[in-house]
From TrEMBL:
InterPro entries named among the record's database cross-references: Bact_CCA-adding_enz_type3_sf, HD/PDEase_dom, HD_domain, NT_sf, PolA_pol_head_dom, PolyA_RNA-bd
tRNA nucleotidyltransferase/poly(A) polymerase RNA and SrmB- binding domain ranges (all copies): 168-227
Cofactors that this protein relies on: Mg(2+)
Protein's organism: Haloferula chungangensis
Residues in HD domain copies: 252-330
Gene3D superfamilies found in the cross-reference section: Beta Polymerase, domain 2, cca-adding enzyme, domain 2
Sorted UniProt keywords: Magnesium, Metal-binding, Nucleotide-binding, Nucleotidyltransferase, RNA-binding, Transferase, tRNA processing
Family in the record: Belongs to the tRNA nucleotidyltransferase/poly(A) polymerase family.
UniProt name for this protein: CCA tRNA nucleotidyltransferase
Poly A polymerase head domain residues: 21-141
Pfam families: HD, PolyA_pol, PolyA_pol_RNAbd
Length: 436
């Protein structure tokens, strides 16, 4: 059973019990745009206790706000009573809700394209907010007075950019003006919720435009002001004919694939984040330099992502990728053991993509990329880092006492192995004796 079939079945049961039940919000919008929704929400005239009477095993944690979650055939469907949200005290959530009519329920929703209902049986769309016309025209518009709507729930500021980015919609001028005027209200929203919206924007295929909108609206200043310094940060034109660091970064964001994982999107966004603070003018060579921008960039990326409460593994991977992005320029000078170790990092496939777009967006060089792709094929038959030929036990057998020297010797043995000079254990033991 698909999510749609499951939700249709639940709606039918509500109707048979005498209640009104519609599909509501995102699922109606997505179907209209030709995307099969991943989950279906139902809006109904039944009160939470009436919903619970029909589905006694449902999850009632949201009943206070009028929402019951029903598990049916492996799918979770939210069944929400038509309601009006009471006043918002803190710009985050309503203090109380009142059960009401479909018209009023549509009015409490954020954007017209999210305010539609659909009759599950006939497919008829019920539009109290002008959402159909906006869907057709590709317009994102707040329902009601935009200033009031962003003031009562300031997360909507970011949701607006997210939906506009995801669907490639234009933000209606009054809504856009309100976002700009109210951008400072984002300060009331928790870093976790900002992070979740931001992640969804930066992983959209259309993420370069999303970033522009975050910049132009003033929203990014509220949570990642470091990005603003990229704008107008000049680079040597012979390496970067495309323009300043912001232009370079946004071109790269557009070049990575539509399904690029979050870690790659963040690494691309942040790879040159330390260019502004490291920029110097080398008088002798007559050119701009950014010495150490990779190492400082890793530190800054870590700070930024920690502030936004990203999980540790995301922070570590992104900082690691930023710290290594300049090493791609030297791969052809590395000896084999070093190349293998470099390529053995779990993030290497993402880093290769970062490097590809770093060049493709600027100087167009492909030699380091091609070199690494060839090495990858050449080394593909065996693990990059094979099991060691000798271990600490062998050193003890040779009469050595465990200590810092062990690591040095074992690493030297691994280097010989990676370089192909030691093939088996016998050779490795002979090499060890010769070393000692
Ligand atoms: P997605 O595909 O991202 O889930 P969605 O439109 O379903 O998009 P949800 O956050 O799941 O978004 O919310 C479901 C519906 O609830 C929205 O379509 C909208 O009608 C309403 N809604 C959600 N969040 C808000 C909000 N902050 N303010 C007003 N209405 C909201
Ligand atoms: Mg949803």
């Amino acid at each position: 059973m698909t999510p749609r079939q499951s939700a249709t079945e639940l709606a039918r049961q509500l109707r048979e019990a005498g209640h009104v039940a519609y599909f509501a919000g995102g699922c109606v919008r997505d179907q209209f745009l030709g995307h099969e929704p991943k989950d279906f929400d139902i809006a109904t005239s039944a009160t939470p206790s009436e919903v619970l009477a029909l589905f006694p095993k449902a999850n009632e944690v949201g009943a206070h706000f009028g929402v019951i979650i029903v598990r049916h055939e492996g799918h979770h469907t939210e069944i929400a009573t038509f309601r009006t949200d009471g006043s918002y005290k803190d710009g985050r959530r309503p203090e109380a809700v009142t059960f009401s009519t479909p018209e009023e329920d549509a009015q409490r929703r954020d954007f017209t394209i999210n305010g539609l209902f659909q009759d599950p049986d006939t497919g008829e769309i019920i539009d109290h907010v002008g959402g159909l016309a906006d869907l057709q025209a590709g317009v994102l518009r707040a329902i009601g007075d935009p200033v009031a709507r962003f003031t009562e729930d300031s997360l909507r500021l970011l949701r607006a950019i997210r939906f506009a980015t995801r669907f490639g919609f234009a933000i209606e001028p009054g809504t856009w003006q309100a976002i700009k005027d109210q951008a400072h209200l984002l300060a009331r929203i928790s870093p976790e919720r900002i992070r979740d919206e931001f992640s969804r924007i930066i992983t959209c295929p259309n993420r370069a435009n999303g970033l522009d909108q975050l910049v132009d609206s003033g929203l990014i200043e509220q949570f990642m002001p470091e990005v603003l310094a990229l704008i107008g940060c000049e680079q040597p034109p012979e390496w970067h004919p495309e323009g300043d660091v912001y232009v370079h970064t946004r071109i790269m964001l557009g070049m990575i694939g539509p399904d690029a994982p979050l870690e790659l999107c963040l690494a691309v966004l942040l790879h040159d984040i330390a260019k502004p603070p490291t920029q110097t003018f080398d008088e002798e060579a007559g050119r701009i330099r950014f010495n150490g921008h990779d190492a400082l960039g890793a530190t800054m990326s870590e700070e930024i992502l920690r502030r936004l409460k990203y999980p540790n593994h995301v922070i570590e991977e992104v900082a690691f990728m930023v710290s290594r992005h300049m090493q791609f320029m030297n791969v052809q000078q590395m000896r084999t053991a070093k190349v293998k170790r470099f390529m053995s990092a779990p993030t290497f496939p993402l880093e290769l993509e970062l490097h590809r777009v770093d060049c493709a967006s600027s100087n167009g060089f492909t030699d380091n990329l091609e070199f690494l792709i060839e090495r990858r094929e050449e080394f593909a038959a065996e693990p990059l880092i094979p099991p060691p030929l000798i271990t600490g036990g062998d050193l003890i057998n040779e009469g050595l006492t465990p200590g810092p020297r062990f690591k040095v010797i074992l690493e030297a043995a691994q280097t010989e192995q990676l370089e192909g000079r030691l093939i088996d254990r016998e050779q490795a033991l002979a090499w060890l004796k010769a070393q000692l």
